[in-house]
Amino acid sequence: MSEPDLRHMAHALSLGRRGMGRCWPNPAVGCVIVSQNRIVGRGWTQPGGRPHGEVVALAQAGPAARGATAYVTLEPCAHHGQTPPCAQALIDAGVARVVAAIEDTDPRVSGQGFAMLRAAGIEVTTGVMATEAAEDHAGFFLATDHGRPFVTLKLASSFDGRIATASGESRWITGPEARHLVHGIRARHDAVMVGAGTARADDPALTVRGFGHRVQPVRVVVSRLIDLPLMGQLARTAREIPVWICHGPDAPSEIRKAWTGLGATLIPCALHGRQVDAASVLSGLGKAGLTRVFCEGGGTLAATLLAADLVDELVGFTAGIAIGAEGRPGIGAMGIGRLAQAPRFDLIETRAVGADVMHRWQRKV
Question: Where does NADP(+) bind (predicted)?
Fold first, then answer.
């Protein structure tokens, strides 16, 4: 791989990330068009998933796209959906070469976009920064291949792993810098998800704040009986910012009608014992189009997701404060008797954020 190919693909990946959390159910694709060592077009998937990154970049490049090289973070689509295929748009624009990071796993595209380009005489190079692209598109691939979104579980805790005192006080364990970063991570996800206990105890807004006007993530609450405050923030704002409630089959009909009347979307889920089944929740969210979900607890929901092996990434913020054994643990009971039964993750990043430490972990492959 040449140094220019790596540099331009890194640029395309950074552009693609601008679409994260805004373009579901479509992938957040970035595209850079280069002619004679000069960038003539840049684009990324727009809010709602249209137009695609390639189309935006081609429109910016105009006639300069002819004979140019297009760097794309995912195989250009080959099927007719709401818009014509991007592979055809690249052909019609007269690009001479396409450099793609990774092949699309969507059966409507997989390999066919590359085949269209090659059949038109365009040189195709693949596999440039494929590992980074696979991480960026992991949610889209999971939704396409397994019918569920990518799940990031976030925990902000004391040094001894507590998320609140015994009385429930939790604001604020971590500092303002960590909280600002959490809002930035929320912004890169399609939805923010919490359990019923957190929704009742904290009355959270679950919105992205501190980043100006932007598309807000869907607010998801997992609540078997929908026993949530009808005068809380989520209820009051459900018509302005989407609220989806994943509930059990035994949720009272009058409560369902009340929340539907407030503007919430209800997603019926199966039960696993006395709790809403985690796999059923994610399947329902996947069918609704979500590709990336940011779970912010509480402890019961965190334990349920971990026990079901449905957490893809852990993000922890640890503060230099000790609360003690009487404090509330960040993760509820999981019934683990031996260490070999415990889910393990690989550390991929650690850094100081203000007075706290952020650590990020990926599921072991």
Answer: 156, 172, 198, 202
